[in-house]
Amino acid sequence: MTREQNATERLIRSAQAGDLESREALARLWLSRVYGASLARLGNAADADDLTQEVFCRAFQALPRLRNRRRFGPWLLRIVRNAAHDRYRRRRPAAELPEELEGRGEQPSLEGAALRAWRDLDGEARLVCWLKIMDGLRFVDIAELLGSSKSAVYRTYTKGLARMRKEVSRC
User: Fold this and answer.
1) What pTM was estimated for this model as a whole?
2) Domain annotation for the chain: domains and CATH numbers
């Protein structure tokens, strides 16, 4: 077991007992992954901030019912997935790009193409790409977090990158 896993388990145990400082430390430890997963799911920084707060509220309310402390990461990402799905169902966000990124009928900008390619990925592919590229996780770690196989995560990642490369290469 890694040092991070040991620290997480100790913090979970204390947080389940009601220790507020442990909850804060747990939130700090997992903040970047939850935010990254939220951003990957929603594609908007402001919405990702809101969702991150919502996820931690939901998680801390449900924390006393968490039985397997070693599965905290996958459990937390499942909360992100469910909360993002709930938010999407409620609001149905627009997928349009701001006018300034559209390129005004000229050759599309690289930035606009990259943003469009990112937004065109399905939520699972965005999440896998985010965890691999931004968090630097290994495929086996991503598979464990998502409750999937390493080969399925690798396929999702490579297909997502291929779709993004195709869109960006049009510039």
Assistant:
1) 0.64
2) 1-93 (1.10.1740.10), 107-171 (1.10.10.10)
